[in-house]
Amino acid sequence: SALEIRVPLLDHVLVEFLASLPGDWKLNKMTTKYIFRAALKGLLPDKIVHRGKQGYSLPVKHLLRGELRTYMVERLHDSTVLRETMDMAYIDRLIAEHDALKHNHNHILWALLNVAIWHDRFFR
Question: In whole numbers, what is the pLDDT of the chain averaged over residues?
């Protein structure tokens, strides 16, 4: 599960303006984000303005085995929606296998944790 937010680019006036521009202004000679890069030229070093896309991810598998482990287990066990819809023994097995380094279940455990938090926040 991923969420990507670039707050300065979410302004509806900016989005509407950019949508009204001709396509060749947005992609000039196969340079992606041409207008964005041109606007930042001189404000940021060229090395940054012209660098390629870089991903960022959290070290979820380590966090769920370390500092977030107790929090995750408590939230999963306390979650009404998970207790009512999931086999908690299965969730416990996923946690045990993840802890023992038998399997990397970080994607499913992270998703379950987010469902539990989301449900508790908006439906409890």
Answer: 88
The 10 Å CB-count burial string (b at 16+, else e) for 77-107 is eebeebeeeeeeeebeebbeebeeeeeebbe
Q: Which residue has the tokens 């977030």?
A: 68
Virtual torsion, Cα 101, 107, 109, 110, nearest 10 deg = 130
d(CA 98, CA 68): 13
- The helix-helix angle for 106-123 and 88-99 (nearest 10°) equals 130
Residue 61: partners with Cβ closer than 8 Å, 6 or more residues away: 98, 104, 106
Q: What is the pLDDT of residue 89?
A: 97
